[in-house]
Each structure stands twice: as structure tokens, then as C-alpha cells.
Amino acid sequence: xxxxxxxxxxxxxxEFALIKHLTEHFEIKNESTLKGVxxxxxxxxxxxxxxxxxxTDMLVEGVHFDLTYVPLKHLGYKSIVVNLSDIYxxxxxxxxxxxxxxxxxxxxxxAMEELYAGMLVACKKYGVDLVGGDTTSSxxxxxxxxxxxxxxxxxxxxxxxxxxxxxxxxxSGDLGGAYMGLQLLEREKFVFKDNPKLQPDLEGNxxxxxxxxxxxARRDVIEYLHKIGVKPTSMIDVSDGLASEIxxxxxxxxxxxxxxxxxxxxxxxxxDRAREFGLDPTVCALSGGEDYELLFTVAMSDYEKLKxxxxxxxxxxxxxxxxxxxxxxxxxxxxxxxxxxxxxx
Length: 345
Ligand code: ADP
Ligand code: MG
Hints:
By secondary structure, the protein is an alpha+beta fold. The chain has helices at residues 15-23, 72-88, 109-126, 177-194, 206-213, 219-227, 242-253, 268-276, 281-287, 303-306, and strands at residues 33-35, 42-44, 50-60, 93-103, 129-137, 142-153, 168-172, 234-237, 256-260, 294-298, 312-319, 325-328, 334-338, 341-342.
């Protein structure tokens, strides 16, 4: 390290390029490691029958959450849910979590009790056990790291890499709401800073606020797909925005896709607030993130089974890699998708 005189800023490399760069020399040495770095969760199998899924996420104050408007109880709930979402995104069932945190002396016992009260609600709701963690101090703020452990039957895990040409591209729920909730909270924080006497004006925004502050993992969607006998060919959860997740699926599966703008599910409240904020609702859905919906592909032959599903929308289809990853706009134009939304020209 010391003889290396050049210095490259972390920000010079994209997050995914950096992960790849740092982990590329770690060869898989154990037969039980079926899938390592690169999907929503690692897949491990020690014996025939069941596979184990493991996923970790870290939340850092000032980066992932702002305690001026995020109640600690909600933060606790969300920190569990976002990890469970990664297990569902593998078509698995979460069973255990470990929770580690670093907190500065700004935090009291009562504050940590609030955080854990939220975690308890999430653990109860999703039927997972808190089985360990680590506790340490921090010189600046709060950091929370949660690891989720889950399981699935051997052969049932769904990877980011299984999409095939002609598959249908589907998403659960609606998109962009969590981002609009965040925009609203940020605006009210700004107004409050300017004039602390003003009460926050959050009325009529319950849905988008809930999407931001108290997201849910789509266990119901996994159960529904199981019930109707549909196994997705590929899947990922929408944590960074639809565009970025579609690109992950397509890159990993070595395919292209056509995404139809007019099919992207956007809730009315999300749509209205986006317009008020002078934002394009489609861009909010493509780039917003934190919706924790499931994005997946299914074989065309499953269309009949899926068309009745009320909270699943077919938003496009998979094409050959050479066709690229494109957004077909309402006006019929076709634009290459980028992680930030789409390249207009
Ligand atoms: P997700 O959005 O589903 O949580 P990430 O984008 O955080 O996934 O991570 C992508 C993949 O890279 C995952 O398989 C994750 O386990 C792996 N990964 C992320 N950070 C690191 C790291 N620091 N070291 C090793 N693997 C990592
Ligand atoms: Mg994920």
C-alpha cells in the first residue's frame, strides 16, 4: 500500500465498479458458496435440500437518514425491512437478523429504545428473530448495520441473471412515492429552518410519507407468485430506482429490454406532488429509489397466470442484448436508459 504513490478518490469509481474492483481477487473456495458478491443476497448450501440466503445493509446518519424528520422508531422499522426486501428479492423467506450499531453520546438509552421498538415491530410483522449483533460507540452520529438470513428450497433462488429474451418485465406496487416523500420532508425541513414558528404542512401526503418513512418488503408478492405457480426468471428489489435496477437485471442476464413509460405504475399522490415540485413523475419513478418493490421477469408462457394479478404491472419485455436497454416514451420515442433515468439524446 505505502509504495503506491497514486491516490484515487473513492468517488472517482462508481459504487458497483468499486465493489467489483475490491472483490475480484477473492476466489470462491467452498463448494457451499453457490453465489457470492453480486446479487441481492449470497446463496449458501451446506447440505442437499435447503439453501441459505444472507444479505447486509448499512444505514448512516446524514447519508441515509436525517433525524430532524425521521422518528427513531420508524428508522428501526425501516432498517429491518430494507434487509428483508433483499431476501424476498431472491425468492426466499427471511428467518433471522443481526443488528449492529455505532452511536455517539448524543444518543440516550431512551433513544435507542425507540430504535429497537421499531425493529421489534418489523421483526414481529415479518416473523424474523433478532439473534445477535454488535454495539459500539461512534464519534459522529448513528450507524446501523443489519444482516438478514433467510432460506429457500434448493433450486428456488431467483438471481439477477436469469432473464431471457421475450420474457415479460414486471414490477410490484407503484414507484417514485418514497422519493416524493423525501422531497416533501426536505422542503418542510428547509421551511422550518427559515421560520421555526411555522408548523410543517404535511397534510394530504400520508401515502408518500409512509412510503419514505415506513416502507414494507413485498412478502405478499413472493407468496402470491408462489400461489399462482409463477417462478420469476430473474428478480431484484427496487432500492435505487427502476432504471438502475433494470440495468442490473439486463447486465447480469446479458439481455436488453424495452420499458414502456406509459406502463410504469405511479400513484396519483406521487404524480400530483411531483408536478407541484416541477418534477417529471417518470423521472421520479426511474431514479427515485427506496420503493422496495420487486422488479422481476417471467416467461411469456406465464402471462395468462399473471394478467389477473392486481398489484403487479407488466412494464416491458426483454430483448436481445444488441437491442440495448430502452425506454419507449409516451410519444413513441425510444431512449437508452441510464442509471439516472434516461439519456434524452
Ligand atoms: P443491494 O442494493 O441489493 O443491497 P448492493 O448494491 O449494496 O446490493 O450490493 C451489490 C452486491 O455487492 C451485493 O452482492 C453485496 O453483497 C456486494 N457488496 C456490496 N458492498 C460490498 C463490500 N464492501 N464488500 C463485498 N461485497 C460487497
Ligand atoms: Mg437489493
